[in-house]
Amino acid sequence: MSLMSLTAAELGRKIKSGEVTAVQAAQEALDAIAAKETAVNSFVTVVDRDKVLAQAENVQKQIEAGEYADSPLAGVPVAIKDNMCIEGILTTCSSKILNNFYPTYTAEAVLNLQKAGAVIIGKTNMDEFAMGSTTETSAYGVTRNPWNTEHVPGGSSGGSCAAVAAGETFLALGSDTGGSIRQPSSFCGVTGIKPTYGTVSRYGLVAYASSLDQIGPVGKNVADCAALLEVIAGHDPKDSTSLERNDLDFSKSLEEKKLLGMKFGVPKEFLAKGLDPEVKDSFMNVLKTLTEQGAIVEFFSVETMEYMIPAYYIIASAEASSNLERFDGVKYGYRAAEYEGLHDMYKKTRTEAFGEEVKRRIMLGSFVLSSGYYDAYYLKALRTKALIKKAFDKAFASYDAIIAPAAPTTAPKLGESLSDPLKMYLGDIYTIAVNLAGLPGITIPVGKDSKGLPVGMQIIGDCFQEKKIIRAAYTFEQTKSYEAPELAKGDR
């Protein structure tokens, strides 16, 4: 049996016990990437083999010397979304404008992983600057869904989710601005967590929309994601939005495997027009399972539903237009070959190096921030954001958690979404509220449609209530076994 079929926790235990070594695990991960990348294209950069094996060898020696006793992930290969800086490793955000950018520092979340003994194997593909829902806007080619390579993996963390699903890595880091961990996790049949805003440091994460961005884990199951979140979470003085928390022992919530008495709310609007019938059927079966396990499930109304998409895209685009001003070809990154004067250099560099979707959002953001429109759009969107948070506060006064589909459909075919940007934006309808309100959310696989594509469900918690949603997801997970696509089984 291949090591790649193990969960991260199982591999970590085998390395600790001496059954396998960190070097063997790294070799198998690199071999799996070499075998599958042509079909999936999950990675922008795979770290040089010798460097990865040297990392693994160093960790192995430290494990044998008695270090990393408290780290469940020591020796486990992990992939990093390509919008997180790692010193000396190409970091592109899947954009042409950063095609030669080698950071001089490492993101705090990645540093925490390295301190825990994880082995960094590469940088995963994504929608350019995390702007997209399909991983088709990358300047480094589309990533394909391991369940069916004619379909998208979702986005923007599509590379991270596809890499885990395809058995190229055991764990990955993604970032979630409007569903960018939870939606591709759903499409790829893996588990992903978006933690409460401020739980994981954003230092070293290339910003898209600073008030919404959050780093989170992607893994095969809930236990792996809880362990990874435990490692990367914590206060960081280098990030002004980072929170002091003393309840970061997320794996503890796995011990209480019961739903008896837990009260779940289901937003009625999330089951209305636009939801694929097969996704709805899978979701209703989940509700049945939860009630059989003693949970209380009630339907309620979210009155702010119709305002979520416009508020999100106004705020996110406004912040993006501001954050992306720094990419101008002066100090680093791509620069146009021919230009006349500074202004022309800016214009040509940004025109040539930004993709269509990024340009669209920069222009939209610049418009809503411009004189005469600021009050009408941006300020109104911020007020709407506050109302959305208020609506969720009201819901959490009655419910332990909110459950909903992760996406209205399963993974669409390649090319379908890009032809209709508005349709793509509407695909985020179930995930964006979590970011607008700063809430934690987890997506777990719950079934497949008639085409054999995964269906995911998300569980949303109140701020700082990750343990509740992890407990609920883990308990439900025990009713099913993890299923990998055929592409992942090819190495067994």
Précis, in short:
By secondary structure, the protein is α/β, with parallel strands linked by helices.
Description:
The chain has a domain at 3-255 and 441-458 and 465-489: Amidase signature (AS) domain (Amidase signature (AS) enzymes, Alpha-Beta Complex). The chain is an alpha/beta fold. The model has no long low-confidence stretch (mean pLDDT 96). Helices cover 39% and strands 12% of the residues. The radius of gyration is 21 Å and the shape is globular.
What labels would you give this structure?
alpha/beta, Amidase signature (AS) enzymes, 16 helices, 11 strands
Query: What proportion of the residues form beta strands (DSSP E)?
Result: 5-15%
- The main sheet orders its strands as 1-3-2-4-6-5-10-11-9-7-8
Q: What is the strand tally?
A: 11
Alpha-beta content class: alpha/beta
CATH homology superfamily name of the domain at 3-255 and 441-458 and 465-489 = Amidase signature (AS) domain
Give me the strand/helix succession: HHEHEHEHEHEEHEHEHHHHEHHEEHH
Oligomer state equals single chain
Provide the low-confidence segments as ranges. none
| Total of helices | 16
What is the makeup of the main sheet? 11 strands, mixed
Q: Which second-level CATH architecture of the domain at 3-255 and 441-458 and 465-489 applies?
A: Alpha-Beta Complex
Write the layout of secondary structure elements.
Layout: H1 8-17, H2 22-40, E1 43-46, H3 49-64, E2 77-81, H4 108-115, E3 119-124, H5 158-165, E4 171-176, H6 182-188, E5 191-194, E6 214-219, H7 222-232, E7 263-267, H8 277-292, E8 296-300, H9 305-323, H10 341-353, H11 356-369, H12 374-396, E9 401-405, H13 421-426, H14 432-436, E10 441-448, E11 454-460, H15 466-477, H16 486-489
Parallel strand pairs: 2-3, 2-4, 7-8, 7-9
Antiparallel strand pairs: 1-3, 4-6, 5-6, 5-10, 9-11, 10-11
Helix pairs in contact: 2-3, 9-11, 9-12
